[in-house]
Write a structure and sequence with these properties.
- It is a single chain.
- The chain is an alpha/beta fold and 395 residues long.
- The chain has two domains: 253 residues, 3-Layer(aba) Sandwich (Aspartate Aminotransferase, domain 2), CATH 3.40.640.10; 131 residues, Alpha-Beta Complex (Aspartate Aminotransferase, domain 1).
- It is built from 13 helices and eleven strands.
- A seven-stranded mixed beta sheet has the order 1-7-6-5-4-2-3, with helices on both faces.
- Helix 5 links the parallel strand 2 and strand 3.
- Bound molecules: pyridoxal-5'-phosphate.
- Pyridoxal-5'-phosphate (PLP) binds next to helix 4.
- The site of pyridoxal-5'-phosphate has 15 residues, from helix 4.
Length: 395
């Protein structure tokens, strides 16, 4: 849970290269090495005793943050402009831990109906089990979310663009209402990363990253981050410590390595995604492309107002097509893999079923929904692969 650094004055690409590392501390080594430790030895009983009171300034125990992990945390906190960050073992832990840390029995929590599926599952199974009232709201409500508030509403969970369906939320409007009601706003900011959406400048109290995705960037690490503003830091820190949540130091090393190239990778993902999405939007097989950076997208105006960059993940709704034809299209693709997660260098495609999860709204787009993650391949090759795939729909 380290503090902000003095590198805030730099532009984003510079920050990404320099935050969260101090070679001086490690014999000049450029990257903070992998520290593997449980026990940390103290020289004096006085120091050990100070550590029990939380008053020892150095390392105290492996669980409480080894340098590889805390350097990743400080980099992510500074990058997003938050007070401090907590690195946790997965993106899912990053969505569930702040909910559990901040909600108490009798509270009411508002959750966007376009929330990442496993976050919804956690709310339904566990927040409710602990006596927290959960209700889902239309992601497009904007300031009309006021009508969903109850006297006991303490948290509003947002995710923008929405998982699978890519609705852009009016986060500043939601935050203004939440704050006027004394509620806190959480945002799953995985799609945009700290480069694409400045959470804290838009009223968010807790920003969440599945670092598994673009920050890791290579489909080889599971990690999450929770970035808090100053007012929310203390309850999160208490819970994080009391729960014994610790992220792997090797995974933190990989995430730091991924982070160093984020400012180069993300624009390439976005540029290629824009090319593929624009091509798709003109195809006769396609009913709608769900990609807020596209002019025509339902969320484009809000995206343009609030976001500073895009990423490479979007949805596609096809015109109705037989399930076996769609399977022929997808099974035969050469460059697009089928599998969960995204944010890696390789392109992915999966069918999705948003209609199965919704409770506050319906998802009825008039054809099958797909999700596409555009990797770092040449988009012309990706388009050719999809074009051959569309030809298989006809057979
Ligand atoms: C993938 C994802 C998560 C969870 O990340 P894991 O590391 O896979 O647990 C959370 N939120 C969103 C929006 C995601 O896409």
């Amino acid at each position: 849970m380290p503090i902000m650094s003095d590198k805030q004055r730099y532009r984003i690409a510079t920050k990404v290269a320099h935050l969260g590392r101090e070679p001086r501390r490690f014999m000049g080594v450029v990257n903070t090495p992998v520290f593997r430790a449980s026990t940390i030895l103290f020289e004096r009983v006085r120091d050990l005793e100070a550590a029990t009171r939380g008053e020892f300034p150095g390392l105290t125990y492996g669980l409480h943050g080894l340098p590889t992990v805390s350097d990743l945390a400080s980099a992510l906190a500074a990058l997003e402009g938050g007070h401090a960050a907590f690195v946790v073992p997965s993106g899912l832990t990053a969505t569930t831990f702040p909910l559990l840390a901040l909600a108490k029995p009798g509270d009411h929590v508002l959750v966007t109906d376009a929330v990442y599926g496993p976050t919804r599952r956690f709310c339904d199974h566990h927040l409710r089990r602990f006596g927290v009232d959960v209700s889902y709201y239309d992601p497009l409500l904007g300031e009309r979310i006021v009508e969903c508030f109850r006297d006991n509403t303490t948290l509003v969970f947002t995710e923008s663009p929405g998982s699978l369906t890519f609705e852009v939320q009016d986060v500043p409007a939601i935050a203004a209402i939440a704050h006027a009601r004394g509620a806190r706003v959480l945002l799953d900011n995985t799609w945009a990363t700290p480069i694409g959406f400045r959470s804290f400048e838009h009223g968010v109290d807790v920003s969440i990253q599945a670092a598994t995705k673009y920050i890791g960037g290579h489909s080889d690490v599971l990690l999450g981050a929770v970035i808090a503003n100053e007012a929310t830091f203390a309850p999160l820190a208490q819970f994080w410590t009391d729960m014994g949540i610790a992220a792997s130091t090797d995974d933190a090393f990989l995430a730091l390595r991924g982070l160093r190239t984020l400012a180069v990778r993300l624009p390439r993902h976005a540029e290629s995604a824009y090319a593929v999405a624009s091509w798709l939007a003109k195809r006769p097989e396609v009913r709608e492309v769900l990609y807020p950076p596209l002019p025509g997208d339902r969320g484009h105006a809000l995206w343009k107002r609030d976001f500073t960059a895009a990423s490479g993940l979007f949805g596609v709704v096809l015109h109705p097509v037989a399930a076996d034809a769609l399977a022929r299209m997808l099974d035969g693709l050469h460059l697009f893999g089928m599998g969960w997660s995204w944010g890696g260098f390789e392109s992915l495609i999966i069918p999705t079923w948003p209609e199965r999860a919704r409770t506050a709204t319906t998802w009825n787009p008039g054809g099958p929904t797909l999700r596409i993650a555009i990797g770092l391949e040449d988009p012309r090759d990706l388009i050719a692969d999809l074009e051959e795939g569309f030809a298989r729909l006809e057979k």
